[in-house]
């Protein structure tokens, strides 16, 4: 009996005897570690030529190694070293450390071990990766850490869902998306502690087509003040909370001495800041006076004084890393997400009236023809005489409002600007005077009005002074052969010009493609149009034909401004690019000040070696952050406009067609903005042709034509503040079906495919063709 028991106990050990030629544990480990592709059981068996019973033995070995903590089983049953990362895996970018992107594995199943922070190594331009992006990457160990080499940027298929909890009549809960591009709701499988009506973040679970949502974060009431901005912040992943270490460093930096004895003292000059009435920070101020030099008769001297942010935010500091991560401030109607903590952005770096402030001063000498004859830069101390709203400065100049600074400050500024304007007119930059919407809120965050901002001479005055200083900064750095973070705007590409030519042809306007394209080329087109009602839509189409401006250390000129060299210098509180230009000027012109006594603050305020080496990468990064901010700001205004219009659902409004597609046309309410769709299915039963070149839908039987720019009256059928979407109908259609906030889920769904009453005319087709 004893002998039998011993045999039974020994049996498991005999089962683990490996076949001859079977790989050792170390060989398996080496193969998994060195494999360029995910290594599952099949790949390991193939590599070692294992068959039949050997595969069964391999399965047992891999299970043993996993049980012993030597291996993890990753996605798709692939193995990787315990505590390690698969050689090829999906990563999500979660942070930026200086200029290096940091990623973590999208799936991490090693219990008791935090997911590793992997440094992403980018080679060349792969599409300007940023926080939130998913990548397929090849990984490798490097020292005590890991590196990832991106192979492919992946779609954001598993992005968090942002929406509002809705309860249906049957008691089931659904997540209604805040993104108007997402057309269907998602059933909620796990609501947590959220309630009906809450704005929430959720993660998708399950597999298509049975995707559901699991609520992870409750953001609150979607209609509460600031919620529209909160939606945009979360949707776009905009960093909006400063780490404690950054806040503490801002307090420390704000106490740095001004070094009055080492700065140029400009406190005796009546320098003024002219800003929007609702400006939260003031980073530029201006002064001008006639030039007393007989050699410059009729000319002026001017100073553009900019907050000396580089003195407080130094390379390598926690403030610097956070500012680079943000790239820019983001301005919403109800709040600002600043690039720098409030201790600096709205206090020590803000040029407040009557208070001594550190400034970087651009001194300009302008001749009688408006040409900048010379310039120099200095670190200065200023005391702003007044902070004026554009409207008040304009009223003082127009004689409609008394102001004690009219004679000493404002009149000289306007006289000097008259010269700068001469030079601007000679340069003939792109002149697209398109309306800008402004949302006005009361003290409780409720909408008072949505209106178009008035364009005043005061706006153009400040704009021209800033442009002159920006050009001077670029040229000053070029003269010293110092690095420049240029603001680049390239000439429009041929594809967009061809599309513009086809569009203009529908108005019988000729546009020759063979000519040299300059900004004046487009200005002449606008002059041809005159004050006709098509002017605004033609200007909009010209704007769409332009390339998008970006930041880069290589100079490609600024097409729109008709300038050969241009850099952003005038807003370092809210733009990281300007901060880099300031640092470059400090180094190039030996403007460094004594090192801080507090060793927690870096010694230098000029460009660091890291700044030099990473100019290209940083330019890509902050250009992406700028686009992110613009989209977030535009979407938020759309939500406010929809909220404002939600009280007018069912009313007929004056609108203008802004876009035409085969499924309908988009229109915007005159004076308010906010695009809404008129589905072609609501235009009647007749067939419509889609004229792609003419951007129009035309009825076959009636001849009714709907084209971009056309003004017409429409009934507002829906206005959804949550996603900013509007829907219109023709006034003679049946009564509107109501706001989606009260919609009946039993209502038949709108068919998403091509409408049955559409035919298509391609841009290169000469005859109607079914599609």
Structure description:
The longest helix is centred in the last third of the chain and has 31 residues, at 615-645. The protein has 6 domains: 25-81, Arc Repressor Mutant, subunit A, CATH 1.10.10; 88-154, Nucleic acid-binding proteins (OB fold (Dihydrolipoamide Acetyltransferase, E2P), Beta Barrel); 161-222, OB fold (Dihydrolipoamide Acetyltransferase, E2P), CATH 2.40.50; 244-489 and 550-632, no CATH class; 494-545, no CATH class; 648-729, Nucleic acid-binding proteins (OB fold (Dihydrolipoamide Acetyltransferase, E2P), Beta Barrel), CATH 2.40.50.140. A hairpin with a 5-residue loop joins β1 (71-73) and β2 (79-81). Mean pLDDT is 83; it is low at 1-19 and 735-771. It is built from 18 helices and 34 strands. It has a 5-stranded mixed beta barrel with strand order 3-4-5-7-6. It starts with a helix and ends in a 10-residue tail after the last strand. It is globular. It is an alpha+beta fold.
Key words describing this protein structure:
single chain; alpha+beta; Arc Repressor Mutant, subunit A; OB fold (Dihydrolipoamide Acetyltransferase, E2P); five-stranded mixed β-barrel; five-stranded mixed barrel; 18 helices; EC 3.1.13.1; RNase_R; exonuclease; hydrolase
């Amino acid at each position: 009996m004893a002998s039998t028991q011993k045999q039974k106990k020994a049996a498991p050990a005999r089962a683990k005897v490996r076949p001859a030629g079977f790989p050792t544990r170390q060989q398996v480990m080496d193969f998994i570690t060195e494999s360029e592709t995910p290594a599952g059981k099949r790949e390991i068996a193939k590599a070692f030529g294992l068959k039949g019973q050997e595969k069964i033995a391999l399965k047992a070995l891999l299970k043993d190694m996993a049980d012993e903590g030597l291996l993890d089983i990753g996605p798709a049953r692939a193995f990787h070293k315990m505590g390690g990362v698969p050689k090829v895996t999906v990563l999500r970018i979660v942070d930026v450390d200086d200029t290096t992107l940091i990623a973590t594995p999208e799936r991490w199943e090693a219990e008791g071990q935090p997911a590793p922070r992997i440094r992403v190594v980018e080679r060349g331009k792969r599409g300007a990766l940023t926080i939130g992006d998913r990548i397929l990457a090849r990984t490798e160990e490097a020292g005590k850490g890991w590196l990832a080499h991106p192979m492919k940027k992946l779609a954001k298929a598993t992005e968090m869902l942002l929406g509002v909890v809705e309860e249906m009549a049957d008691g089931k809960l659904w997540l209604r998306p805040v993104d108007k591009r997402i057309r269907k709701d998602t059933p909620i499988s796990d609501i947590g502690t959220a309630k009906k009506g809450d704005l929430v973040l959720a993660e998708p679970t399950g597999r298509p087509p049975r995707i559901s949502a699991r609520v992870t974060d409750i953001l609150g009431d979607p209609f509460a003040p600031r919620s529209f901005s909160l939606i945009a912040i979360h949707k776009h992943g905009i960093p909006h909370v400063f780490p404690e270490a950054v806040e503490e460093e801002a307090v420390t930096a704000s106490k740095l001495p001004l070094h009055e004895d080492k700065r140029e003292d400009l406190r005796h000059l009546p320098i003024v800041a002219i800003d929007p009435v609702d400006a939260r920070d003031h980073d530029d101020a201006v002064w001008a006076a006639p030039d007393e030099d007989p050699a410059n008769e009729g000319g002026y001297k001017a100073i553009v004084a900019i907050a000396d942010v580089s003195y407080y935010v130094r390379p390598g500091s926690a403030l610097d890393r956070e500012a680079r991560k943000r790239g820019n401030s983001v301005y919403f109607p109800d709040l600002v997400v600043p690039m720098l903590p409030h201790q600096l952005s709205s206090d020590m770096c803000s040029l407040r009236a009557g208070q001594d402030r550190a400034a970087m001063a651009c001194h300009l000498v302008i001749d009688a023809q408006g040409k900048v004859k010379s310039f120099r830069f200095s670190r200065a101390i200023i005391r702003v005489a007044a902070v004026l709203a554009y409207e008040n400065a304009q009223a003082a100049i127009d004689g409609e409002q008394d102001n004690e600074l009219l004679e000493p400050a404002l009149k000289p500024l306007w006289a000097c600007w008259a010269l700068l304007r001469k030079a601007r007119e000679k340069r003939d930059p792109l002149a697209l005077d398109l309306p800008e919407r402004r949302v006005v809120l009361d003290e409780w965050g409720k909408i008072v009005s949505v209106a178009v901002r008035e364009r005043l001479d005061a706006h153009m005055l400040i704009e021209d002074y800033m442009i002159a200083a920006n050009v001077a900064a670029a040229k000053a750095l070029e003269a010293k052969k110092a690095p420049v973070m240029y603001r680049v705007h390239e000439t429009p590409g041929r594809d967009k010009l061809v599309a513009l030519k086809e569009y203009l042809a529908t108005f019988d306007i000729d546009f020759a493609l063979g000519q040299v394209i300059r900004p004046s080329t487009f200005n002449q087109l606008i002059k041809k149009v005159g004050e006709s009602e098509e002017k605004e839509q033609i200007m909009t189409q010209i704007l769409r034909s332009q390339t998008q401006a970006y930041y880069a250390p290589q100079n490609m000129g600024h097409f729109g401004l008709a300038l050969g060299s241009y850099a952003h210098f005038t807003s370092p509180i809210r733009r990281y690019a300007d901060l880099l230009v300031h640092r470059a000027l400090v180094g190039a012109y030996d403007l460094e000040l004594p090192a801080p006594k507090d060793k927690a603050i870096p010694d230098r305020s000029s460009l660091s070696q890291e700044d030099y080496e990473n100019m290209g990468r940083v330019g890509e990064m902050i250009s992406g952050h700028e686009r992110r901010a613009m989209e977030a700001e535009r979407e938020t205004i759309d939500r406010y406009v929809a909220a404002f219009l939600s009280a007018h659902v069912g009313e007929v409004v004056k609108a203008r067609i802004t876009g035409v597609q085969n499924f309908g046309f988009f229109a915007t309410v005159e004076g308010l903005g906010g695009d809404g769709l008129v589905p072609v299915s609501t235009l009647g039963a007749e067939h419509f042709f889609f004229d792609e070149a003419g951007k129009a839908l035309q009825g076959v039987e009636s001849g009714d034509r709907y084209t971009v720019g056309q003004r017409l009256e429409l009934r507002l059928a829906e206005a959804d503040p949550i996603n900013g979407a509007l829907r219109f109908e023709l006034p003679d259609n049946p009564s509107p079906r109501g706001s989606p906030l009260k919609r009946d889920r039993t209502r038949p769904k709108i068919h998403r495919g091509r409408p049955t009453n559409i035919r298509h005319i391609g841009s290169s087709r000469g005859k109607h063709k079914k599609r």
